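Async update (no meeting this week)

Hi team, since we skipped the sync, here's where things stand on the single-chain job. The sequence we agreed to prioritize is pasted below, unchanged from the tracker. I ran it this morning and attached the output directly underneath so nobody has to dig for it. Comments welcome in thread, and please keep replies under the output.
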Amino acid sequence: MTKSLWINLPVKDIDKSKAFFTQLGFTLNLQYGAREDSACLLVGESNLVIMLFEEDLYESFVGTSISDKRSGSEVLFSFDAESPEEVDNLAEKVVAAGGTLYSEPGYKDGWMYGCGFIDLDGQRWNILYMDISKMPLG
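Output:
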């Protein structure tokens, strides 16, 4: 039985990526990935693990090259926020840390408030607050 799931991401500069994600509130886990070419981050109350690997190391264990993230996207990583204000605050932190917003904060369908950003290595992320009391049923 699977006990846990973690996400592995390639990065160009491990130090810059660690700084970026810790500025967003992700926690650096020094127990794992504490090498010069990798890092382990814990996200949220469930401590989802995100492993960052410099590109050469990442390619050495995936058996293929890294996709060109400028021409498309294979994955969208999403995480929740407690309020629209938290979405706005995180969007500001993303920009201050060197990321890019591809979708400005705003409402969608009257019950979701979120934004989208691109990290330092081209991965796409979504921050989302959902007001379940306003969610349409059916």
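Quick observations from my side:
Helices lie at 14-23, 55-62, 84-96.
The chain has a mean pLDDT of 91.
Reply here if anything looks off.
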